[in-house]
Amino acid sequence: MKYFKLAEFDDAPGTGKNMKKDFLLKLEKAREYAGIPFIITSGFRSKETNERLIREGYKASPNSSHLKGVAVDIKCNNSNDRIKIVKALILAGFTRIGIAKSFIHCDTDLEKNDAIWLY
């Protein structure tokens, strides 16, 4: 990959290898379009990590797309980067995007409806 190392998607050392290749290729395309770095704050998640996040009060879903290796959260805390990232994700073909104050979620979970939502 040109822009990412698998370790950036790790939940625990080495788990980034569980990310789906087609998802990563689409994310690479979005990163190219955006022209700014994508800092991954959450990539692949183990069941244990996901359950811990739920217990700690984060808006993690029990059937999170992160568990399948088809989702990431990208750090973002300003409007200029937010528009660049969202436009790039849409151009790259992402149809599931969540926008929070400090991050943008994207996934390619085929078991879920297309949507753009706010946290």
Give the arrangement of secondary structure elements.
Blueprint: H1 21-34, E1 40-42, H2 47-55, E2 71-75, H3 79-92, E3 96-99, E4 103-107, E5 115-118
Parallel strand pairs: 3-5
Antiparallel strand pairs: 1-2, 2-4, 3-4
Helix pairs in contact: 1-3
Main beta sheet: strand number and arrangement?
5 strands, mixed
End-to-end distance, in Å?
Answer: 30 Å
Give the count of helical stretches. Answer: 3
Major sheet strand order: 1-2-4-3-5
Mean pLDDT: 97
Shape descriptor: globular
**What percentage of the residues does DSSP assign to strands (E)?**
15-25%
Helix % is 25-40%
Structural class: alpha+beta
Total strands: 5
> What value does the Rg take, in angstroms?
13 Å
| H/E element order | HEHEHEEE
Indicate the low-confidence ranges by residue numbers: none
Defining key terms:
single chain, 119 residues, alpha+beta, five-stranded mixed β-sheet
